[in-house]
């Protein structure tokens, strides 16, 4: 039985007009994301991974083609608060406590005080930060700040989570731990996740599908369906299956470069 299509782009193009002339960021992007997918976008710097995520989020407007989210336009989906967005930097307000930062979207949306408290408590537990509600961002490590940022994106329970290289600035041990936590969170919440990364092991470890992008103008060079089981301990990265998928991703990146 086919799954419900959550995000779909057809013939998507995006050209930025700059003082130095047009910059072709995305070209002919055809992509289908199904309910419950964990999709990673990987490609060289400047290939349009983040731009594509921002188009899905209605933060950039394409110059050609179409994008639909939950069967409506990206703009309508944003108005309906269909997704949470996690940026590269945690972006927490230093003068607000962790609880206060997570409450911010809920305050804007007009949730009751009790409703806010209930949701903050729930998402802090989800990201394993229960008990840190009264702490300020500067009292937390970088990894804990990113978890708080994920909690804020989850606070209003959107079905789609868009994540723009959220662990890129963290050291490898912290990153590994957060990758494990993110997979556990995904298993518990059944969200549909779109995740931008530069790391091949991260993309292979996390994803049900890996979208390999070519250098600018960003095109889809390959879409790799993962054959790994849903339960993935870190040791799976030493398995033959994992290494084969990683090789295919690397080959797609190399081929994308040679065809670029």
CATH topology of the largest domain: Rossmann fold
Q: What do we call the CATH homologous superfamily of the largest domain?
A: P-loop containing nucleotide triphosphate hydrolases
**Poorly predicted ranges:** none
How much helical structure, as a percent, in the residues?
25-40%
- Gap from first CA to last CA: 37 Å
Tell me the number of strands. Answer: 10
Domain count: the total is 2
**Order of H and E elements:** EEEHEEHEHHHEHEHEEH
Strand order of the largest sheet: 6-7-8-3-9-10
CATH hierarchy, class of the largest domain: Alpha Beta
How many helix segments?
Answer: 8
What's the story with the biggest beta sheet? 6 strands, mixed
* Class of secondary structure makeup: alpha/beta
Strand proportion, as a percent range, falls in: 25-35%
Mean pLDDT: 91
User: Can you tell me the CATH architecture of the largest domain?
Assistant: 3-Layer(aba) Sandwich
Radius of gyration: 18 Å
Rough shape?
globular
Structure description:
The protein is α/β, with parallel strands linked by helices and 260 residues long. The protein folds into two domains: 1-82 and 161-171 and 181-260, 3-Layer(aba) Sandwich (Rossmann fold); 88-157, no CATH class. Helix content is 37%, strand content 26%. It has helices at 49-56, 74-79, 98-108, 113-126, 142-154, 172-189, 200-206, 240-259, and strands at residues 5-18, 21-34, 38-42, 64-69, 72-73, 83-86, 160-164, 192-197, 209-213, 220-225. The strands form two sheets. It has a six-stranded mixed sheet with strand order 6-7-8-3-9-10, sandwiched between helices. Strand 4 (64-69) and strand 5 (72-73) form a beta hairpin. Helix 3 packs across helix 4 and helix 7 (200-206) crosses helix 8. The chain is globular, with a radius of gyration of 18 Å. The model has no long low-confidence stretch (mean pLDDT 91).
């Amino acid at each position: 039985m086919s799954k419900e299509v959550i995000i779909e782009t057809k013939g998507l193009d995006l050209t930025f007009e700059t003082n130095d002339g047009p910059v072709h960021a995305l070209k002919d992007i055809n992509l289908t994301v199904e309910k419950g997918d964990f999709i990673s976008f990987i490609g060289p710097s400047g290939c349009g991974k983040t731009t594509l995520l921002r188009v899905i989020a209605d933060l950039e407007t394409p110059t050609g083609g179409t994008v639909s989210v939950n069967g409506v336009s990206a703009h309508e989906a944003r108005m309906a608060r269909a997704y949470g967005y996690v940026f590269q930097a945690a972006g927490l307000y230093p003068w607000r406590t962790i609880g206060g930062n997570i409450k911010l979207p809920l305050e804007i949306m007009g949730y009751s005080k009790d409703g806010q408290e209930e949701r903050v408590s729930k998402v802090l537990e989800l990201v394993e930060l229960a008990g840190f509600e009264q702490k300020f961002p500067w009292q937390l490590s970088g990894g804990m700040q990113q978890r708080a940022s994920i909690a804020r994106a989850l606070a209003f329970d959107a079905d789609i989570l868009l994540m723009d290289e959220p662990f890129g600035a963290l050291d490898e041990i912290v990153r590994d731990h957060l990758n494990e936590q993110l997979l556990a969170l995904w298993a518990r919440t059944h969200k549909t996740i779109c995740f931008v990364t530069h790391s091949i092991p991260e993309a292979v470890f996390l994803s049900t599908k890996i979208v390999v992008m070519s250098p600018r103008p960003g095109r889809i060079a390959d879409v790799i369906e993962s054959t790994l089981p849903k339960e993935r301990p870190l040791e799976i990265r030493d398995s033959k299956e994992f290494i084969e998928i990683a090789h295919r991703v690397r080959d797609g990146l190399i081929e994308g470069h040679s065809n670029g």
